[in-house]
Write a structure and sequence with these properties.
single chain; 153 residues; mainly alpha; 67% helix
Length: 153
């Protein structure tokens, strides 16, 4: 497997495994449903790739987000921190592999599905939510992933 394909496979695996691990602990029904569907979609994508270790930054972001029980922070992590960076990564890599377009399409579809939940009342109004959300963005930035999940060469 080429470095680029393995990198994308690790991102897909990270999203799939990270969501799958955190979703069972979340409480707010609409967030759980959306993130469960996303986990399933990435699981279906992952079978198109050879097994790859989960991307460590993606899994760390989702693990930290899963500590907030409603699911609002996990939804934020997926739809604001991870999803857009994953799409930029795919653009940066270019059309090297037909599976990349499938990953992009699933990501776009899942981001659209989760977008309507942003206006749901709940934990985003809690005092610590903005601080926790910013810490996820900072984690991405401090690990060299400010705009995309860069491929280390």
């Amino acid at each position: 497997m080429s470095g680029e394909v393995e990198h994308v496979a690790s991102l897909v695996t990270g999203v799939h495994q990270g969501l799958e691990r955190e979703v069972p602990h979340l409480e707010h029904g609409p967030y759980v449903i959306c993130l469960s569907r996303a986990a399933r979609a990435y699981a279906e994508l992952s079978v198109q790739f050879d097994p790859a270790p989960a991307h460590p930054v993606v899994t760390e972001i989702l693990a930290r987000a899963g500590a907030e029980p409603s699911g609002a922070l996990a939804l934020y992590a997926f739809s604001v921190v991870i999803g857009p960076r994953l799409l930029v990564s795919l653009v940066d890599l270019g059309p090297l592999d037909a599976r990349f377009e499938a990953v992009a399409e699933v990501t776009r579809r899942q981001l659209r599905a989760c977008a309507g939940l942003a206006s749901h009342p709940g934990s985003i109004d809690e005092p610590g939510f903005a601080v926790a959300a910013r810490s996820l963005v900072r984690l991405a930035e401090q690990t060299g992933n400010a705009e995309s999940f860069v491929l280390s060469r």
